[in-house]
Amino acid sequence: MECMNVVALIRRTLLRPARPVPARLRVRLAAWVSVAGSLVYVGEKMYMAAHGQIGMPGHPAPASVQAQFEHPGLAQAGNASLGIVAALVAWATVARWGGRIPRWMLMSALTLTAVTQSLGAVVTVWRADFGSVGPGWRAVYETVSGSAGLLAWAVVAVSYWLRTRTCARSRTGAPHAGPARLTAGAGR
Fold this sequence. Notes:
Elements (H helix, E strand, L loop, with lengths): L1 H12 L11 H27 L3 E2 L2 E2 L2 H4 L5 H21 L10 H24 L10 H27 L25
Antiparallel strand pairs: 1-2
């Protein structure tokens, strides 16, 4: 009998779907910017995998780093698969099917993905080459895309956290319609 209580407790706490409050337009746009940025990353990594090099287009790794990889194409393909996972995580925060995923599980994946993607965006902005002649299109692209990606992942992560909090739900367990419901006496 006690085993049944443990199973019921696990189902109630660990496997309960998140059912987030629907995302507003700005949050959905941020999620799609994150998805698009991740898919561009996938394309860049697949390009480098096809050429058998480590690094990013326009920024290949030095020869000493290239020598450390016996199969650089496989390493780049593995990185591309991480980009696909990142795109799916961002999409899950705003998609209806993502509401079936337990909050702790998607929040863990989102935190890890947002941190790694944000670090990648910071490195992208940091390595942009603004030479003395003036910035080239590549430097401008890297700066804009890195900054937009950093902001988009922050919006996606914070929004999902806010939309899935238990206090963001009404007393009946249904998602609230917005911040006005959280004020004293609203909806009564």
